[in-house]
Amino acid sequence: MRIATRLVVSISVLSAGCAVRHQPAVNTLSGIGGRSGLPVPRAAASKTQSTWPPHLAPGAPLRSDDAAAVALWNNKQLHADLATMGIAQADLIDAGLLRNPRLDMLMPVGTKPFELLLHFPIEVFWQRGRRVQASAQALEQLGNSLIQNGLNAIRDARVAHADLLLAQQRQEVARRSVELRDRITQLTETRLRAGDISELDAMAAKSDLAAAREQLARLSADPPVANERLRFALGLSLDAAPLAVKADPVPIATPPLAPDLLEKAMASRADLKAAEIAIAAATKRAGWERTRLSLVSAQLSSKGIGSNGILTSPGISAELPIFHRNQGLIVRADADVDVQMRLYLALKQRVAFEVQEARELLLQAQAGLARLRGDVLPAFQKTASLAQQQYEKGEVAYLFVLEQSRGLVDAELRLADSEAAVRRGIAQLERSVGSK
Fold it and tell me: Which structural domains are found in the chain, ordered by start?
């Protein structure tokens, strides 16, 4: 029995030594922060309460970067995705565990002698390495995939921030437009009573005012909806106060050339890295399946032999691979390698498309903004200014000044749309490239 005792102790020590002590290869939150340049929480987010980055105070007006930072701290879907890392970590721990030995013992009854049989699976020793590597790579793959999810959350927060800014700006411009058209209508009514204009001209001014009021009523409903969308993107609670936002200067620098952006995207995109790891993990699983031809166990048999006492001897128990040699799972694993390779190629194609599309849309938005700022808006501003000067000299009626100001208000509305398009374009391009 001393041999059996020593063998059991040795196996127990070996099993303890084989326990996996592995930390996730990718610190997902740090990876998101490194790519975005934003602060990330050091611990898991609260399940119920909203938390704020240390440099922000609740209720303070949020810039685009502030909104993205709050999203990293509170976005519930992002943190639900991050929680799945625990499942992958558990799979990795399970992959490193050894199977428990099995003990069969027959008690001596009548003439039947005492018999003890100890089985310990030994095929795990040449399978465990590949199994652990496959699980570790699956964990790393998940971590990289979740980095991309974090960048998506940042993009969504930036876009929602731009949409709220636009909604507020459009509402303000529409309010000014109503005030302006109301003054025009009052002047036309005065001129109608004086007989200076026809009733048709007065009705045209009233129709214009009615259309402006309808537009104001419609645009006034947009800020609350945009505020809720931003609150949802940031992961704030339902009872959170309405958010205050403020605008950053709109970047007008031309983005890098498409080949440079593509090169950076291929190196930075976390989902591409995850796809590469998925190929390696699938390859490891295919190698692991090839080692699972049969079950092999080391045995230790002890039996009472008459007056000789209990005799103990070692042995081996093996499953004979006659009817199958794990062909089904081997073919499945090989097919999974092929699938992962094709998914990787498809993802590379999509990344290239996303970068090209985001860059072209940003260039279009910047070009439209440049035309409004450089040509359209200055022309309307100059026209309105000249009309005001002529009115002060008594050369034109005040109605003419108001009509020229109306064109300026409309141009400012288009300017707000163009600025929002540029902000959205930058957010989408940064997400497509995979870094700031």
Answer: 20-102+129-291+331-433 (1.20.1600.10)
